[in-house]
Amino acid sequence: MKEPKIIVAINYVNYGNKKKQDHQEMALRVLASNRPSNVELVSFNYINENVFPPPCFKVFKMLKRNSRATIHNNRDLPYIKDIFNLCSEMKSDVFGYMNSDILVNRDFFNGMHVNRDAFLFQRIDIKSIADASSFNKGHYKVYMKDHPGFDAIFFNRIWWRKNSNKFDGGLIVGEPEWDFYYVKKIRSLSRNFKIKRALYHVFHKTIWTLNSTGSINNRKINGTIP
C-alpha cells in the first residue's frame, strides 16, 4: 500500500511559563525526530506572532479569527475548525491537529492510511524526560495511564471536505471540550474511525478553567451546559 501524505498541524505557543515552553520544545524535537518522510509538519499562527518552532516546521501565519477579539476570551486562542479547513486546502491524504506539547514515538504514524475517515488519539501522562533519545528508549515513568481527553485528531482529507459543514465552527482550541465535541460528532457521522491511546505528555497543571469565556463557549456548543 502506498504511504499516504500526512500533514500534522500545531499551533505553536509562546508560553510565558518556562517549564511549559521547555515541554513544548522537547515535544516538537521528538516529533521532528520521529516523523517518517511522508509526514509534513506545519504550524498555523496569527500574522503578528513571532514564533520559532524547529526548522522542519513550515509556519503559516494565516489564522484570522481570534477568540479574544470575537468573544472576549482571556487568551489569544484560535478556532479549531479554521485549522482543519486550512489543512484541507493543502495537498495531503490525511491531516490533523496535535497539541504542541504532545510526544509521539516512531510507531505513531503506522497504520494511518486513507481507509479510515478519522483517527482519534488519547494520551498517557508521564513524568519528565531527559531528551528525545531517552523517550524513544522508553526511559520515563508513567504518571497517569488513562487521561480522558483527545490531544490529536486526524481526518481523511476527502471525508473532511465532504463533511466539514456538519461541524460547528465556534469551538476554540486550548479550551475544554472541543475534542469531546469532535469525537461525538465523528461518531455520529461515521463508523469507520480509529481510537487509540498513542500519545505521551509530560504532566503539568492545566491553565484553563471551566469559567473562562472560551470554556463556557465550548461547553455550550458541546451541550454540557445550557
What are the salient characteristics of this protein?
226 residues, alpha/beta, Spore Coat Polysaccharide Biosynthesis Protein SpsA, Chain A, nine-stranded mixed beta sheet, 7 helices
Tell me what you see in this structure.
- With 226 residues, this protein is an alpha/beta fold.
- It has one domain (6-222): Spore Coat Polysaccharide Biosynthesis Protein SpsA, Chain A (Alpha-Beta Complex).
- Helix content is 29%, strand content 23%.
- The chain has seven helices and nine strands.
- Strands 1, 2, 3, 4, 5, 6, 7, 8 and 9 form a nine-stranded mixed sheet that branches.
- β1 (6-10), α1 and β2 form a beta-alpha-beta unit.
- The chain is globular and about 45 Å long.
- 36% of the residues are buried.
- The mean pLDDT is 95.
